[in-house]
């Protein structure tokens, strides 16, 4: 039964992503960013961990799990280490390379404006 729920939940997340492409005409970057933020928001309000407990790999494999991991690490370290933990928690739970890419990409987006 666990495999069925993993398949259904993971498939539902993929269907949401496909609908974002087809119906809302979002680019792959917008779709990916939206799904990461959705995973982060669900973890922030405490709903992603119960989903992982229920669906297993169906919730831990899709891109939404990356947002979950970022927020989960930051909130856990915030409770343990204070405000410094918000940044260090991201590095503890996710790989330093991916976290650095996110931070530097954000900083670059603040400084550089795309040409129309």
From TrEMBL:
Keyword 4Fe-4S appears in the UniProt entry: no
Q: Which UniProt keywords are listed?
A: Membrane, Transmembrane, Transmembrane helix
Task: Locate the transmembrane regions by residue number.
Answer: 6-24, 31-48, 54-78, 90-112
Record bears the keyword Nuclease: no
Q: Which InterPro entries match?
A: Spore_V_AE, SpoVA
UniProt feature coiled coil, ranges: none
Protein name listed in UniProt: Stage V sporulation protein AE
Question: Quick one: which gene encodes this?
Answer: spoVAE
């Amino acid at each position: 039964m666990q495999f069925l729920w993993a398949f259904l939940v993971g498939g539902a997340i993929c269907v949401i992503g496909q609908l974002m492409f087809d119906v809302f005409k979002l680019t792959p970057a917008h779709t990916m960013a939206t799904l990461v933020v959705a995973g982060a928001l669900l973890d922030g309000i405490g709903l992603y961990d119960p989903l992982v407990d229920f669906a297993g790999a169906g919730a831990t494999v899709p891109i939404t799990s990356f947002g979950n991991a970022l927020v989960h690490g930051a909130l856990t370290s915030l409770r343990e280490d204070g405000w410094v933990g918000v940044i260090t928690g991201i590095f503890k739970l996710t790989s330093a390379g991916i976290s650095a890419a996110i931070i530097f990409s954000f900083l670059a987006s603040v400084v550089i404006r795309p040409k129309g």
